[in-house]
Amino acid sequence: MTTARRAACVIGWPVEHSRSPLIHNYWLKRYGIEGEYRREAVRQEDFAAFVAALAARGYVGANVTVPHKEAAVALSEPDERARAVGAVNTLWLEDGVLHSTNTDVEGFLDNLDASAPHWDRDAAKALIIGAGGASRAVIYGLLTRGVERVVVANRTASRAEALPASFGKRVQVADWARLEAELADAALLVNTTTLGMHGQPALALDLARLGGHAIVADIVYVPVVTPLLAAARARGLATADGLGMLLHQAVRGFALWFGKTPEVTAELRALVEADLDGRK
Ligand code: ATR
């Protein structure tokens, strides 16, 4: 262990909205680690140069957010999951090599494990709404955990139709218009779109056909209880929220940069929730 003050950052454009500084600086304080986590507002055209100079800028690693997640793959040594997802959200330097991964995968899974233990006991079919980067991280994660069939519906059909080629035949495409019919045998429903986010339309979906043991997850975290999650809870279903995913995806970056695996606690959740409430 070095005693030097370590620093990491989140790189994005815009980056003001990122809650990562709040999370990582909370953990630094909580564990008494000499370190710092900053925001770095970097334009698309400056991203490659910024990443190339990461060590020179005094950073041991970084989070990567919009719009750089895809570009970061080619600028680093991605692990298998980052390659499969096609997007990177975590960078770290090791022996002068810039490595990368996508911790949205375990962020989603770890939160699901924490929110709905044994969700994967009988997970024959998961229904995923959306086909963007977040959807790819969720699909990859579900396949690694043995879900037999991952059915994806997206407003723009062509994006969903490209997914089986990346992830194989266990991933299937459903018509956007048939979403409600697809609910009947789904063990897990996941919204990976921006629908339901503050300022966006709600996801118009009647959950009546979902079975009583189905679990509903949302990656949206502003608001924490999206209309979709509220509807699921009203039906007595188990839910996993986007805030939990956000907190869990931060764990590995912190461990890689600062050498301590941090805990996702109720106190941290309350801190971030209060910040979200104050800023929306
Ligand atoms: P991310 O990388 O965060 O997943 P993205 O790649 O922009 O972001 O994907 C956003 C997802 O939300 C897509 O599935 C998008 O659907 P399209 O592919 O049809 O654009 C979905 N989405 C966003 N706004 C939507 C809306 N109003 N109705 C339906 N889907 C929407």
List keywords for this structure.
six-stranded mixed β-sheet, six-stranded parallel β-sheet, 12 strands, 13 helices, single chain, 37% helix, alpha/beta, 280 residues, binds 2'-monophosphoadenosine-5'-diphosphate
Please sum up the structure shown.
The chain has 280 residues and is an alpha/beta fold. The protein is 37% helix and 20% strand. The model has no long low-confidence stretch (mean pLDDT 96).
Provide an overview of this structure.
This protein has a six-stranded mixed β-sheet with strand order 2-1-3-5-6-4. The protein has a six-stranded parallel β-sheet with strand order 9-8-7-10-11-12, with helices on both faces. Helix content is 37%, strand content 20%. The radius of gyration is 19 Å and the shape is globular. It has 13 helices and twelve strands. It is of the alpha/beta class and 280 residues long. Helix 5 packs across helix 11 (242-249). The structure holds 2'-monophosphoadenosine-5'-diphosphate.
Q: Considering DSSP H and I runs of 4 or more, what fraction of the residues is helical?
A: 25-40%
Distinct small molecules: 2'-monophosphoadenosine-5'-diphosphate
SSE topology string: EHEHEHEHEEHEHEHHEHEEHEHHH
The profile of the biggest β sheet is: 6 strands, mixed
| Net shape | globular
Could you give the topology of this structure?
Layout: E1 6-12, H1 20-30, E2 35-41, H2 47-52, E3 61-64, H3 71-74, E4 77-78, H4 80-85, E5 90-94, E6 97-101, H5 104-115, E7 125-129, H6 133-144, E8 149-153, H7 157-161, H8 163-167, E9 171-174, H9 179-182, E10 188-191, E11 215-218, H10 227-234, E12 238-240, H11 242-249, H12 251-258, H13 266-279
Parallel strand pairs: 1-2, 1-3, 4-6, 7-8, 7-10, 8-9, 10-11, 11-12
Antiparallel strand pairs: 3-5, 5-6
Helix pairs in contact: 5-6, 5-11
The chain binds 2'-monophosphoadenosine-5'-diphosphate (ATR).
2'-monophosphoadenosine-5'-diphosphate (ATR) binds at residues 130-135, 154-156, 159, 192-195, 201.
